[in-house]
Every structure is written in C-alpha cells, then in structure tokens.
Design goal:
With 419 residues, the chain is an all-alpha fold. Helix content is 78%, strand content 0%. The protein has 21 helices and no strands. Helix 15 packs across helix 18 (337-351). It is globular.
Amino acid sequence: MPPPPSDAIWAWSIIVAATAGVIIRPFRMPEAIWAVIGAATLVLLGLLPWQDALTGIEKGIDVYLFLIGMMLIAELARLEGLFDYLAAFAVEHARGSPQRLFLLIYLVGTLVTVLLSNDATAIVLTPAVYAATRAAGAKPLPYLFVCAFIANAASFVLPISNPANLVVFGKNMPHLGTWLRQFALPSLASIGLTYIALRLALRRELKDETIETRVPHPKLSRGGLLTAYGIGAIGIVLIWASALDLQLGLPTFICGVATAALVLLINRQSPLPVLHGVSWSVLPLVGGLFVMVETLVKTGVIAQLSALLHQAVSQSVSQAAWSVGIATALADNIANNLPVGLVAGSVAANDHLPATVVSAILIGVDLGSNLSVTGSLATILWLVALRREKIDVGAWPFLKLGLLVTPPALIAALAVAIR
C-alpha cells in the first residue's frame, strides 16, 4: 500500500537532496556520507520501515561482492606497477607521435575497462597515464580525457565491465551468448565513435604536442606478472560464470581475494597496503542508493514509470526503445547513472520488456553518462584521481567536450541495438 501523499513528497525530497549531495559533495564531504545520511533519514523519519531498508541493502549483495573483488585486484595491480608498466609501454611504442600515443592509451583503457570494469580505468589507470605522459614531456590532459571517456564507452562490452550492468539486470543477467548478441555491435559503435569524436575534438592539442621517444620503462615485477595472469584468469572465470547464467558477484569476490592472497603470499608481503588502498566508501554509497531506490518502489514511483513504459512499448517498441535510451542518458547527468540504473533496473524487472528496450536502457545508463562530470561513479572517481595530481577539470569544460563526443556514439550505439 503506497504511503500518504505528504509522506511520499517528503521521501522524494530527501532522495533528491541526498542524490544532489552525492553529486555536488557540499563541504567536500565524501559521496558515501550523503547517501548514508539520505538512507538513514528515510528510516529515522518513518518514511521507510527498517525491514524494507534491509531488503534494499540485501538486493545489493551481488554488487558489493563484485566491487570488492574488482577493487582488490585493481589495487594489487596498482601496487605491483602493472598499470605504470602499461602506460610506459604505450609511451615507448608511440615513437614520439602524440596521435599514436593517444590511440595506444585508448586501446589500453579499453582493455582495462572490459576486463576490470570502468572504475579501475578511472581510479588506477588515470594516475599511471598522468605519470607516463609527464615523463614523456606531454601535456597530460588530452590523454587523461581518454581515461574518462573510454571508461564509460567500453563499459557494456561484457557484464563485468561496469557495476551498473549488475544493477540494471540484477538476477536477470542474460547468458553470455545473449549478452554478446545484444551488445557486441553497439559496443563497437560506442568505442569507435567515441574515439573518432574525441580525437577530432582534441586534434589541436595533439597537433602542437612534442613527446619524448624514450622514457624510463619500469620493469614488471614478478608480482606484477602474476597479477596480470590473475586478471586474465578472472576474465576467463567470469566469462564462464556468465555463460552458465551465474551471478557474477561471488565469483568476482573469490577470484579477487584468491589472486591477491596468492601474489602477497609468494612475495611475502603484508595485505595491509592493498586493503588500505581499496575505496571501501563505495560500498556504503551503493548501499545507501539501494535503500533510496527501495523507497521509490514503496512510494509507487517505479510502478508509475513501469506503466508509462509499458504503454509506450504497446504503441511502438522501437520508439519506446529510442525514448527510454535517450531519457536514461539525460537522467544520468542529472542524478548519476548508479541511481538511474537502479531505478531503470527496477522498471525493467517489472515489465518483462522486449530485448531492444532493455538494451537501450543499458546503453543509456552506461554511455549517456559521458556527457558530464556528474554522469557516472567512474567519472567522479576520475575527478578524484585528478585532484590528487593537482589537476582541476571544471564541469563546463567537460560538458563542452561531452556534448561533442557523446551524442554521436550514443545515437550510433542505440541505432545498432534497436535495428
């Protein structure tokens, strides 16, 4: 039974305020604090029963396990110098050409995103690219933009490429073969068009660049090599799990913990540096968002959205797919793609929608977030990585670039998916 209208209005107001806090970070307080405050306020004011709040938190278990496993392996790779090695490899093989370096970093970013998720590209590859480009005497910013945009453009190649994929599909994750049939060609369109648009948008900066042909190339340690093998093994295990229609959280967690334990044991290293480097605050952030979306379910918002989408599908599947794909893409940049993905996933689960409509929803959630700095958790984490290097990218410069780069890729990916 839906709550009284006044309670629903209070609940929505708290959710809007908490989401704004996550995006804007008033008083420079971490994103997770605002999500937890929002969730706790809903419970304390009696707008959401604590039992329902626990239900919302429990719905995120697969996502929490996935994030822990991926963050462990990504932090291990950072500490073992794997990302520094890959970035230096790209600079060395660019042979003094900024255009070639741009392409190589784009390819490395694609590989990292596909196999380790877009958050790894934002958190770990970004500082490595900064260090390598500085060593080569290049202006880092054009190459750092690569890390931001490819993190989302390549994030629906595989189910493991973006935590938002798990959020949208939940327990209804498609078999790997079905996933590839739905998203292989849209992913190619997304990656290809994003590269072309980004390359054209930054052509002047690259044209005026001069970079060194040789830079210090760190030697890959035994731990780094083992971590690389571990990442490959994780990719195989997760593809196998996806092919068997298993949830991906637990296999990711087990593989991440096992790889980290093996490398640390062989190197006789303490686990504390790895554990310290993991962004644990992401977990309460996601948990708070799940609670807020559970509130939307209880207040009838999800049911209303489901009814609207069902009506649109009954009139025209292709028009509904285009509309919902563009709508979710725009919503990403107002409310961030993680809560948008949670809402969209709840709507999709209610309606048993046609595959083309669900594909459009996921593409909008993943790729639409490239429009602005507030679009995705990965882009927010990218900004955090830049701040550590004393680089400030404002919302307006990113939006100007996003407006040039994102629409062509989004339209192309949707067109291929809805064909």
